[in-house]
């Protein structure tokens, strides 16, 4: 009888652990092919000729058009630099420099991947359309309320993700690609 109880317990626990680890590998993925730089994560093998199985699984799960390996890379942040989740009830300030790239865009999406920029505002901030400091650093504001300077106006309420896409970049290539130059995401205040 004890053997049957242990067998049933193993049959119940094994799929839970297996499915849980599979979900983790395809969403977070830091241990399985994803890269984490501060609050941002990326899948460096997306768009390569032979991506690893976890990257293929993530791409299939995301069901979105991916950039080729030589075209660029997309970094997604769901939390600020302190680890708190991004929410539209708060305002955020991004400051610092980006890795070397010909062009970059920054936009915000909800949990379904839909752009949440305000209807009459720009859908994304582009690297060629912002004011910069003398040293090339950027200072951007993200939120639903009016803010000075470079501002990505959001609409609605609830959590969101910040998506930074670098085009024609050397990040992860080993050719002077610096991955420690990502801008920080600082929470300014909440409603």
Describe the fold and architecture.
The protein has 191 residues and is α+β, with helices and mostly antiparallel strands. It has two domains: 1-32; 33-190, Sandwich (Jelly Rolls), CATH 2.60.120. The protein is 19% helix and 29% strand. The chain contains two helices and ten strands, in the order H-E-E-H-E-E-E-E-E-E-E-E. It has helices spanning 2-27, 53-62; strands at residues 35-37, 40-42, 72-77, 90-96, 101-109, 125-126, 138-143, 150-153, 161-169, 184-190. Strands 1-2-3-9-5-6 form a six-stranded antiparallel sheet, with no helix packed on it. It has a four-stranded mixed sheet with strand order 8-7-4-10, with no helix packed on it. The radius of gyration is 19 Å and the shape is globular. The N and C termini lie far apart (59 Å).
What is the tally of beta strands? 10
**CA-CA gap between termini:** 59 Å
Number of helices: 2
**Sequence of secondary-structure elements:** HEEHEEEEEEEE
The name CATH uses for the topology of the largest domain is Jelly Rolls
Oligomer: single chain
Residues in helices, as a percent range: 10-25%
Question: What number of structural domains do the residues give?
Answer: 2
Write the CATH homologous superfamily of the largest domain.
Answer: Domain of unknown function DUF1214, C-terminal domain
Low-confidence stretches: 174-178
- Our estimate of the beta-strand percent is 25-35%
Instruction: Give the helix/strand class.
Output: alpha+beta
Radius of gyration: 19 Å
Shape: globular
**CATH architecture grouping of the largest domain:** Sandwich
Q: What top-tier CATH class of the largest domain fits best?
A: Mainly Beta
User: What about the largest sheet?
Assistant: 6 strands, antiparallel
On the 0 to 100 scale, the average pLDDT is 80
Order of strands in the sheet with most strands: 1-2-3-9-5-6
């Amino acid at each position: 009888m004890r053997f049957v109880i242990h067998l049933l317990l193993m049959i119940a626990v094994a799929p839970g652990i297996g499915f849980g680890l599979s979900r983790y590998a395809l969403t977070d993925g830091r241990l399985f092919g994803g890269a984490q730089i501060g609050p941002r994560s990326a899948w460096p093998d997306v768009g390569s000729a032979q991506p690893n199985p976890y990257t293929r699984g993530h791409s299939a799960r995301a069901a979105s058009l991916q950039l080729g390996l030589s075209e660029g890379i997309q970094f997604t942040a769901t939390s600020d630099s302190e680890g708190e989740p991004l929410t539209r009830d708060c305002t955020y300030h991004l400051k610092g420099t980006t890795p070397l790239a010909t062009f970059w865009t920054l936009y915000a999406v909800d949990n379904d991947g839909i752009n949440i920029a305000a209807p009459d505002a720009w859908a994304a901030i582009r690297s060629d359309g912002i004011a910069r400091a003398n040293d090339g650093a950027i200072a951007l504001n993200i939120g639903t309320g009016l803010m000075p300077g470079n501002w990505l106006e959001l609409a609605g309420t609830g959590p969101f993700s910040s998506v930074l896409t670098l085009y024609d970049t050397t990040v992860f290539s080993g050719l002077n690609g610096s991955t420690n130059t990502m801008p920080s995401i600082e929470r300014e205040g909440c409603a």
